[in-house]
């Protein structure tokens, strides 16, 4: 069986604890385009903030009753499962400087992982890892 995909990107759902701080990070600091806020029909209610990152839809979900488990620490190798997602960009130094100025945690500073490929990894307000990647 072959899956015929209907879009060029994935939708990524991130459960958050606070809408204001998460929107300040993803929308205001990183510049993702806010499309809409819609009610969450599952999980006892809440809201989904829909943001665009290129072709990808980032769905920030804040439930009325915030779940207790948090992301495991220890960086990428700290646990199994979804650990991080990557945002490709052309201005990694400027974006990382803005993240640092905002007081967010930088887990991996600017690092050239192979010739011409630079990354940095930061934590969002809930401790989820977000990798920035620049080629060239």
Describe it for me?
This protein is of the alpha/beta class. The protein folds into 2 domains: 11-63, Roll (2,3-Dihydroxybiphenyl 1,2-Dioxygenase, domain 1); 76-135, 2,3-Dihydroxybiphenyl 1,2-Dioxygenase, domain 1, CATH 3.10.180.10. It is 15% helix and 41% strand. The protein has 2 helices and 8 strands. The chain has helices at residues 19-29, 92-101, and strands at residues 11-15, 33-39, 46-53, 56-63, 84-88, 106-114, 117-123, 129-135. The strands form 2 sheets. A 4-stranded mixed β-sheet has the order 1-4-3-2, with helices on one face. It has a 4-stranded mixed β-sheet with strand order 5-8-7-6, with helices on one face. The chain is globular, with a radius of gyration of 16 Å.
Could you give the topology of this structure?
Blueprint: E1 11-15, H1 19-29, E2 33-39, E3 46-53, E4 56-63, E5 84-88, H2 92-101, E6 106-114, E7 117-123, E8 129-135
Parallel strand pairs: 1-4, 5-8
Antiparallel strand pairs: 2-3, 3-4, 6-7, 7-8
Kindly list the characteristics that best describe this protein:
136 residues, alpha/beta, 2,3-Dihydroxybiphenyl 1,2-Dioxygenase, domain 1, 4-stranded mixed sheet, 2 helices, 8 strands, 15% helix
